[in-house]
Each structure stands twice: as structure tokens, then as C-alpha cells.
Design brief:
3 domains, Rossmann fold, two-stranded antiparallel ribbon, 410 residues, Arc Repressor Mutant, subunit A, 11 strands, globular, 43% helix
Amino acid sequence: MTRFTYSAAHGRALVAPLMPGDDVDPDVVYAAAVWSGLAEGGDRVAGALVQARGAVDALGLVLAEENGQDAAGVSPKEWSDAVARWRPRLVQDELDLPLHRAAASGVRLILPGETCWPRGLDDLGPHAPLCLWVRGDPATLTRLHASIALVGARAATGYGEHVARELSSDLAQRGLGVVSGAAYGIDAAAHRAALDAAGLTVALMAGGVDRPYPAGHLELIDAIARTGAVVSEVPCGGSPTKWRFLARNRLIAAMSDATVVVEAGWRSGALNTANHASDLGRPVGVVPGPVTSPASAGCHRLLRDTAREVRCVTSADEVIELISGGGMFTMSAMRSTAGPETPEADVRPRTDDRTRVGDALSLRSARTVDEVARRSGMAVADVQLHLGLMRLDGEVEQDGHGWRRLATAR
């Protein structure tokens, strides 16, 4: 593998087909694209460094192995940990391949500050995406001046899908954008209803936008791209792993003026999106369900949660009230998106570095520690530590070729 070296001419040629306009420096576009391959979504150190120095200078600092802790405003340990995360991914072909895939798929790259950049993402601060990969017309994102995230369970009931369709259709007909994650269940019902109403809908993906996921929604995702936009912070070709789904949820919340949880089980990922929205000071609405339905247990839990202000909603009119003044939180209530101030492990689905290592392994082929580090976006030393612990728990095995995940692992 060839170590990555920055070449302005090489980079300009790669990003030329991906730029929606000529008002952005191609060198900056290329550097931002490289950063999106080096750092996982929400990487605070990468975000702070790029915001302080710009994508090009920040990348040059890392390549020159200079100390950037002061520029990023982090401690020496935070800086060394960050560099250790990025270093395994400094591979030329692997950082260039997403750009080739994007060009072949008609994907566009947009950066913070561009006209079509969703301004709500800026509220994420250093956790904001470094760029966005977009299928569809990026200009449609400028129409998200009033938008609602409709989220909920994948294993939705008929009741939940009916409510999602009714809310989405009514909101879309009134000119509001509908934002969701293109998953089975509530997400799909919301997207389809918005499309049927000839409204704007945007899908946020956990993997590359050139890899429709779930595969069963290929036609739905194509339809969204034709009339709206399919968006991701993950480079083209990237896998939709567990931790990327949770990282993606902060983008759904930030791109929307309010988040409505239509139906959610006790530990549904939709609760994670609602928590991000609350952390950002965005209004959160919850649709109640039958008290006997496990599919609505998470919704009822949110309604009982006195630590977060949520509103019960049963119609599009009540959803609109969330953003028309009655339910809007003050931005002074905003908390850090790095996580809640009080423990909520029982509310947010658990994902950690061990999950990332597991996602980076294969059931069939053995992978080296270096390859696992590149796939997971973690430091080699951290990967080795977790692999050792996972082997003790019977989750992985090692042979002469590398490490493999065991099918019997819990």
C-alpha cells in the first residue's frame, strides 16, 4: 500500500467532476474529502483542527507530523490519540477510491459555507461533518428552511406506519421538508408519503450514498435522489456500520427544525436521534401509542422523561406548533453534542470501540490488525487491546492470517 501524499494537481483532477459550482477552491474540496476518509463522523479533534486551520493546512500539519494540539485546542493525549486513529487510514488508493466512485455515480461534494450547505449542521460545532456527499441536486438542500425529522422503529406496526404516512403527507403538502434515514418501517413510510405528495424528502445514510442501504430500498432511495437528496458524511463505498448509524442520527436531528418520534421500542435508535435534537435545543415531538404495544414503549418513555422537554403530538398541526414558537427551545439550553451530562446508557443504544472492532471484522476471511484499524478508524494499539479482550470472551479467533469474528459470538 502506498502512503498518502498530498498533490494539489492530483486532487483537483479527482474532485473536478464532484463540484456543483466553481465558487469553491478545489484544493479545499479535495482536502475535505480526504479528511472525511481519515476521521469518523463527529471526530471532535478533526473538526476543531479543520475549523481552526482550514482543511488544507490541517491536512498538511498531520502529514508533516507536526503538533496540532494548540490549533485544535486539545490536550497532548487527545492529540496523540487522534493522530493514532487517523494514521492507519493514510493510504493513497483508499483515500482516492471514494472520489472515483463518486464520479462514476454522479455524486456531488459540498462543504460548509456553500450556498447549499444545511445551516443547521453548523450547530454541531466541532462535531459537524467536514463535507457532505450528495446524490441528487445539492440545491434542494436549500429548501430545507423548514423541515421535520420523522423517525422511528424499523419493526414498525401498522399503526406506526399509518401515522407516519399521515404526518409526512400533510407536512409535505404544506411545503415542509421531511428528513429521515431510509430504513425499513417508519423511515420508509415517511419518505414514501412525502414523495407521493410531491414534497421534498431527504435521506441521511450511514454508509456511502453510492451503496443504497437497506438493499431492499434501492428503488425508494433512487426516487429520493431524483426529487430530493440522499446525503452522507461517509465517503462513497463506506459501509453502514452500527456506530455510523448512531453518528448519522445527529445529522438527522441537526438538519431538521424539529424531530418527531412516531413509534419506538424501549431501546430504539430513534431515541438517540431525539436525544441529539434535544441536545441541540431543537423541539422534540412524540406520538403516543397503545399502552400495551412494546413498539411504543420508547415513545412513552420519552414522554415521561422530565430531564428533557418533549411534546405529545398527534397531528401535522401539532407538529407545526413545535417550530412555530410554542415548542421551540432556547438556544441557551443547548448542551454539548459529545454526550449528555447525565448517564443515559439505558436510553441510548450502546455502541463503543468494541462494537467498532467487531464491525470491522469478517466472519469468513481473516483480517490483519492494521486492516481492522483502517476499517474501524481506530488506533492500532486500541484495536489490539480490544481483540485480546474479545478473544477471551469467545467473540473472535486468530490464525496465521489475522483475526476473524466468530458466528457464535453474542
